[in-house]
Amino acid sequence: MQIEETGLDGVRLITPRRFGDHRGFFSESWSRKALADHGISIDFVQDNHSLSMTPGTVRGLHFQAPPRAQDKLVRCGRGALFDVAVDIRRGSPTYGRWVGYELSFENGRQLLVPAGFAHGFMTLLPETEIVYKCSDTYAPETEGALLWNDPGIGIDWPLSGIDPVISAKDAEAGGLAGFDSPFAWKD
User: Fold this and answer.
1) What CA–CA distance (Å, rounded) separates 131 from 76?
2) Which of 13, 130, 145, 156 could form a disulfide with 173 if both were Cys (CB 3.0 to 4.6 A apart)?
């Protein structure tokens, strides 16, 4: 597994090796030992699988607050998406900054999004499947969201000129200005 640092502490881009031949390929998409060898020891307890039919579908920017905060390991099962993590840890030197990467079936890349970061994505192809591991189960009483296109964050979403497909709940999320984050940065 290739594990790369990003511009945000703790967010990592992970590319599992693929072994292919005329039949297709085999890939070990998650390995507790491989991640532990790189100092990542997360106990994932739930897998989620989402399908978005239309390019330009936006989901996020979501998080779960402590004590039910989630680390996520996100990958694309089919199609392609632009995956984003936003630092929402009060006092962090990178508070409000974001990183984004294309994850696709073709490139096999994954994004590790730790607790303390809001997560979202935009689909780039029709019928895109997103598969992700979570370190805690869904707890709706702790869920929160930031506005996907908040100018205070300034995410450069890749599908300009396409009307985004977004839920009413995500469209009504608040921005970073005045946001009282439940996460604190620790040295």
Assistant:
1) 6
2) 145
User: Among all residues, which ones are annotated catalytic?
Assistant: 62, 132
> HSE on the CB side for 50, CA within 13 Å?
19
Is-contact 126 157, C-beta < 8 A?
no
The answer to whether the CB of 11 falls within 8 A of the CB of 99 is: yes
How far, CA to CA in Å, does 33 sit from each of 28, 38, 177? 12, 9, 40
> Which amino acid is present at 147?
L
Tokens read off for 180? 């009282």
Q: Provide CB contacts within 8 A for 33, sequence distance 6+.
A: none
pTM over 0.85: yes
Beta strand pairing call for 2-5 and 98-104: unpaired
Q: DSSP labels for 19-36? A: EEETTEEEE----HHHHH
